[in-house]
């Protein structure tokens, strides 16, 4: 993570992703899967990478809670999804509802110090990219499960025809 001397926010850098990039190569994604076992392996790999992203998420949250952002009526937090993935969310400090409207108001408010608005923009960029990456991994996990089920159904139909 690189600390921005102007905003104080530490955004994610290439170094933060080196191990993830090594572990999560997409080379194995584009091939003709011949068995449920191959799909199970892809699902397992996607789950592992998703779990490996958790420390990055925690680092982003900790960095976002520093000055000058901690002075704003906005909370940067984890929002768990029904899929099991965790996404980064803004929350409104006053009512714990979605912080997106509050974020939108703050980032455009000239009364908010420029340093804080710059930090908000950096955080939002990291949030958008992080959530996209979590979403892609979650989609791969869901699709591999669905493909496994469909392959299983096809094999059962085939076995049923063989036994007739």
Task: Set out the fold topology.
Elements: E1 2-3, E2 10-11, H1 14-23, H2 36-52, H3 54-64, E3 74-80, E4 86-92, H4 100-107, H5 114-163
Antiparallel strand pairs: 1-2, 3-4
Helix pairs in contact: 2-5
Structure description:
This protein is mainly alpha-helical and 164 residues long. The protein has one domain. 59% of the residues lie in helices and 11% in strands. It has five helices and four strands, in the order ββαααββαα. The protein has helices at 14-23, 36-52, 54-64, 100-107, 114-163, and strands at residues 2-3, 10-11, 74-80, 86-92. A two-stranded antiparallel sheet has the order 1-2. Helix 2 packs antiparallel against helix 5 (114-163). The chain is elongated.
List keywords for this structure.
two-stranded antiparallel sheet, 164 residues, 4 strands
Quickly count the helices. 5
* Total number of strands: 4
The percentage of residues in β strands lies in 5-15%
Report, as a whole number of angstroms, the end-to-end distance.
62 Å
* Computed structural class: mainly alpha
Query: How would the global form be characterised?
Result: elongated
Q: Radius of gyration over alpha carbons?
A: 21 Å
Order of neighbouring strands in the sheet with most strands: 1-2
Indicate the percent of residues in helices. 55-70%
How many domains? The number is: 1
Mean pLDDT: 87
- As residue ranges, the low-confidence spans are none
The helix/strand order is: EEHHHEEHH
What about the largest sheet?
2 strands, antiparallel
The oligomeric state is single chain
């Amino acid at each position: 993570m690189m600390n921005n001397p102007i905003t104080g926010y530490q955004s994610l850098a290439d170094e933060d992703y080196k191990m993830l990039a090594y572990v999560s190569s997409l080379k194995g994604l584009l091939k003709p899967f011949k068995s449920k076992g191959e799909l199970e392996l892809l699902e397992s790999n996607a789950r592992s990478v998703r779990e490996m992203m958790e420390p990055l998420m925690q680092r982003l949250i900790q960095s976002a809670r520093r000055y000058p952002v901690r002075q704003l009526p906005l909370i940067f937090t984890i929002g768990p999804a029904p899929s099991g993935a965790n996404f980064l969310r803004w929350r409104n400090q006053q009512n714990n509802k979605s912080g997106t409207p509050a974020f939108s108001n703050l980032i455009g408010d000239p009364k908010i110090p420029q340093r804080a608005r710059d930090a908000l923009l950096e955080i939002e960029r990291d949030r958008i990219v992080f959530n996209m990456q979590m979403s892609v991994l979650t989609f791969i996990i869901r699709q591999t499960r669905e493909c496994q089920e469909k392959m299983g159904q096809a094999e059962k139909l085939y076995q049923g025809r063989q036994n007739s």
